[in-house]
Amino acid sequence: xxxxxxxxxxxxxxxxxxxxxxxxxxxxxxxxxxxxxxxxxxxxxxxxxxxxxxxxxxxxxxxxxxxxxxxxxxxxxxxxxxxxxxxxxxxxxxxxxxxxxxxxxxx
Length: 107
Known about the structure:
The chain has one domain (2-104). Helix content is 0%, strand content 48%. Strand 2 and strand 3 form a beta hairpin. It contains no helices and six strands. It has a five-stranded mixed beta barrel with strand order 1-3-4-6-5.
């Protein structure tokens, strides 16, 4: 899934991963997440890896979460649980698990 950043409330964990939420205007998905395309969606991250491919816009000497701005491009990588088509779907709720988020500077 990819799109543009609306907002984020991420914090870095002691082990270098991140937890929090990322709100994205979704512009492209694969077939599994097709229902998210064209929507503004909030994803919850728990112990996810984050790559920051943005410039140091606040000139503090390091690239961090404070350098992200609304409109930056976002790629979200994760899994969505599914059941085989022949299984009973009643009572099943798909779970989305985000493993990695990549932020790119807006164009």
